[in-house]
Each structure stands twice: as C-alpha cells, then as structure tokens.
Amino acid sequence: MWRFTPPPSPSSLPSGLVLRWTFDTADVSGNAVSDDSGNGGTGQIQGSYTLVPGKLNQALQLNGNAYVTMSASSDSAVGLNNSTTLALWINTESKGTVALLSKYNAAGTGAGYIFRLSGGRPQLVLGGMDSQTYPPMATGTVKVNDGNWHHVTVVITVGEGIQFYVDGVAAGSRSTRVVGGGDGTSNLNLGVCQWVPFGGYFNGMMDEVEVYDRALSASEVNSVYLLSLQ
Does 3 score more than 70 pLDDT? Predict the structure, then answer.
C-alpha cells in the first residue's frame, strides 16, 4: 500500500520553476499529466504506462516504447530562451543512449537541447544554434544506470557553460559558449527525443520532473534534492 508523503510545494522550491510533473496519482488523469508549477504545461502520455511507487509517492514507469510530450505552445519558458535548469529523479539500468528530457529541432544546424544518458552518464546536447563551442555537448562524470534512484540535474548558463549534478553533488562541467534562443517549435518530450537517433526511448522509472527558467546555484540544486527526501 502506498504511503502518501506531501510533496514539496512550489513555494518551497527555488524561484524560476516553470514546469513540474510529479506523476502522483492526483496529477495523472488518463493520459494527461498536470503541471504543478501553475504554468499550464500539461503533458500527454503516449503509449502504455504504469504508475509505481516512486522516490516521492508515485512515479512513471516507462518500458522503452512510451513517452510524455507537451506541445511547444503550452509552456514557452521551457525552450532555452535564457539560462535553464533541468532536474528529475530516475531509476534505470539502460546502457545505451536514451533521452531524459528534450526539446530539439534537428533541422539546419539544430536548436534546443537533449538531456540524455550515454553509457550511463548524464549528457547534454545543444543545437548548433545554441552553442558556439564544438562539439556542442557535455558529459557528466558519474554513472547513474545502476538500478537505483538518482536525482540528475543539468544547469545551462548562457554565456558560461554546463554543470551536472547527481544526488545534489557536482558531477562534471564544461565551459561552453551557450547562446539563448532555443527551440520554440518542437514539443518538449520526456523519455524520448523527437529525433530518436539522438536519444532513444527510456526504460525505467521517472519522478519529480522540474524545469527552471534560470541557472540554479549549487546550494539550490542540493536543496531541490533534499526536499525530495523528506
């Protein structure tokens, strides 16, 4: 039997929260996933799914052929228009290249971002329009595909670079000349990339997905991690 733990309220989280999917049963109706940030970013689950005991209350179980999508017009603040932070809990044993959270258009030189796992390590790929550094990607230093719950975060700071955190602790960075602009036309996808070769289907559990429209500090990332442990 699931024991309900009151999740952190948006007011207790750092400022700048623009999307939050908890996957608690109260926030999932049919295939619709409500956005607890108050910005109207409703997601739609594509394919079969299961709600299972998660890191905090319930989590979304994806079996390698389903994902969550949100139309580009639903919440424009997730589009890397400025510094951005992506954070979520995951539990997986995937060994390939699988997408976590992506909003990416591969047309031309590409625009947007793909937050994914590659060889078990967090990795961020930016479109060529959003990075003046080649290759436009960075990879974290800690593997998280061990079948346990891990909180993975990437902070994208315009003009500076990319910083990864695992379980609230810094886990690799790269000085990359990030340019704001992002992708305003593609859907935001959780668990797959629109361009599947760049990030295949995720197999495992996801919980407490959050997007901030600014770069969180190290102490703020740690506070988000700790709030989910209460």
Answer: no
